[in-house]
Write a structure and sequence with these properties.
The protein has 18 helices and 16 strands. The chain has helices at about 65-75, 95-105, 120-125, 140-145, 150-155, 180-185, 195-210, 285-290, 290-300, 310-315, 330-340, 355-360, 385-395, 400-405, 450-460, 485-500, 510-520, 525-540; strands at about 50-60, 85-90, 110-115, 165, 175-180, 235, 255, 265, 325, 345-350, 365, 375, 415, 420-425, 445, 465-470. The protein has a 5-stranded mixed sheet with strand order 2-1-3-12-4. A hairpin with a 6-residue loop joins strand 7 (about 255) and strand 8 (about 265). It is globular and about 70 Å long. The two termini are about 25 Å apart.
């Protein structure tokens, strides 16, 4: 099957598993060339535009050999693009704050990572991002035209326009827990196929190695632990965590009538039970949707001491981390990084979100058929044409794309067939975050240096039949009418969410209820009424 389906993700926050942490300058629009040079080819035009430097803003850890790759890019594209890239990498925990600061101050950025699980919809409604429709399905940008077919773009439009460039290889990147197989066998635990098996493994680790971290986590905790799913139902759309919000950043779950034509209610974390009374069973109580925060408290005893501290997480001894959560596509690469620190470590994935995913059943993976990761061009950029020329170059050939996604051929990776690759022993020096710039169903290669079972799951995630579509999947919330209220609530909400996601507050429900009362004082009811109003208007207009 064609590799069309990549959402990741991420919800997703999309993460690469590393068990130590468990975890744009001058513009010359008239002279831009549409032709490209590849790392193994030559330019097709003799006229290069004047020099330019584009400022990009991404997040995560900067790849060690990025400078080497950028130098190669400049060498092979100087006669066509004549462009340099200044890529700013923010720590994951700081990216959202820094991007909002740049947008509010008007600082110029030419390309920036934003996503549905960050501020994409809000920032579009606030007018922060440029429309990009003219660059796609345009013969002046043949690379973009080929790499981003109309159906992909249509699924990711916002209010009928293209504001973001979507990155995907499947509609989701399945969530996993990476189990240290060598430790599991050493403590005598059975292979982990269920959450009960997982807890028995964690208990065995603590009993034999009390100084180990049985379940190492970062700020999102064991991300999807205990989260309920709609499983294809059309009478409810769940938002059990902040990252699942489709209503301006506040995780309102929205209930609909059985025929999907009327909004019955919208409820969120800490709401009184009366807000859930009209919800369809079994989602008609607070804890049926948000009770997973209590499950996180139960798992807290297995976690590292300070999961909200990036420095503390980085200081963890990878040799003593018995498991950690992440995503399928990061499994092999993350394990390669971990094995550099612990050469004898072996790993196995546990698909913990549901038995149906674990058993690769059809219609088990949740999606709205939108890419979970993307980049945007802020309105502050004066280099939109130049930036899109770079992206056209990037997507014009497999060689160009391979350079950024995988690094230098022969040094960081080698080809394995038409669509495969094998990492070299220097691959860890170029662990590029493909979900931030390069993931594409037509160009991304599969790492074939993986366990056959892992490859089966990757193919499973690429199959559209593996998915069910959530209700209201085409709905986009307009944040402008309640921008003031959202600006007050969301920082406080995030503070509460950090504690709830990591299980750090034993009296989690009291915290949720107390926080909810504070949010009400900041305008939560105004936001709720706007959510219900906009969703009903969407349904009245024929939306589903």
């Amino acid at each position: 099957m064609k590799r069309y389906f990549k959402k990741a993700a991420i919800p997703a926050l999309v993460v690469t598993i590393s068990l130590g942490t468990i975890l744009s300058a001058c513009s010359n629009k008239g002279s831009d060339s549409a032709s490209s040079a590849s790392p193994n080819g030559t330019a097709t035009t003799a006229t290069a535009p004047s020099p330019a430097t584009l400022k990009f803003m991404l997040f995560g850890e900067k790849p060690a050999d990025l400078g080497e790759v950028l130098a190669k890019f400049e060498e092979v594209s100087k006669d066509t693009l004549n462009t340099k890239l200044d890529i700013e990498y923010n720590p994951s925990a700081d990216h959202k704050q820094k991007m909002q600061l740049k947008m509010s101050t008007g600082e110029a950025v030419d390309l920036m990572f934003d996503a549905p699980w960050m501020f994409l919809y809000n920032n579009v409604s606030l007018g922060y991002y440029q429309q990009l429709d003219k660059y796609f399905n345009n013969d002046q940008y043949p690379g973009l035209k080929k790499a981003f077919p109309p159906e992909m773009l249509e699924s990711n439009k916002i209010n009928g326009h293209i504001y973001s460039i979507p990155f995907l290889t499947s509609y989701t990147d399945p969530f996993i827990i990476s189990i240290r197989k060598d430790i599991r066998e050493e403590v005598g635990a059975a292979p982990v196929k269920s959450l009960d098996d997982y807890k028995k493994y964690l208990d065995a680790v603590q009993a034999k190695h009390p100084d180990y971290v049985a379940a190492a986590i970062g700020g999102r905790g064991i991300y999807r632990l205990g989260i309920p799913q709609e499983n294809g139902r059309k009478d409810i759309r769940l938002a059990a965590v902040v990252q699942d919000s489709f209503t301006g950043g506040i995780p309102f779950s929205v209930a609909l009538s059985a025929d999907g034509k009327k909004v019955l209610g919208a409820a969120t974390i800490g709401d009184p039970e009366s807000e859930f009374a009209k919800f369809p069973a079994p989602f008609n109580t607070h804890d049926s949707i948000y009770g997973h925060f209590g499950t996180r408290v139960e798992y807290r005893k297995y976690n590292n001491k300070d999961p909200l501290s990036a420095s503390a997480n980085q200081a963890l001894d990878p040799a003593k981390n018995a498991s950690g959560e992440g995503n399928l596509l990061g499994f092999t690469a993350g394990n390669a990084v971990a094995k550099k620190a612990v050469p004898n470590a072996t790993f196995e994935p546990f698909f913990y979100t549901s038995p149906d995913v674990q058993n690769m059943k059809p219609a088990a993976l949740r999606t709205d058929f939108r890419a979970n990761n993307s980049v945007v061009i802020p309105t502050t950029s004066k280099n939109a044409d130049r930036t899109m020329k770079f992206l056209d170059w990037l997507y014009s050939s497999k060689d160009n794309h391979d350079l950024f996604e995988l690094g230098i051929e022969g040094e960081h990776w080698t080809k394995d067939g038409e669509n495969g690759f094998k990492p070299t022993d220097k691959a860890a020096n170029y662990s590029f975050q493909g979900y931030e710039l390069t993931w594409n169903p037509n160009l991304s290669r599969i790492n074939t240096n993986q366990d056959p079972e892992v490859l089966k799951y990757i193919k499973y995630a690429m199959d559209k039949n593996s998915y069910y579509q959530v209700a209201l999947s085409g709905f986009i919330f307009d944040a402008k009418p309640v921008a003031t209220e959202l600006g007050k609530i969301k920082p406080k909400l995030q503070q509460t969410a950090d504690l709830l996601m990591t299980g750090m507050e034993p009296k989690w429900k009291e915290l949720a209820q107390k926080s909810n009362k504070e949010w009400r004082d900041m305008g939560l009811e105004t936001v709720r009424a706007e959510v219900i109003k906009q969703v009903q208007a969407y349904l009245d207009g024929g939306g589903k």
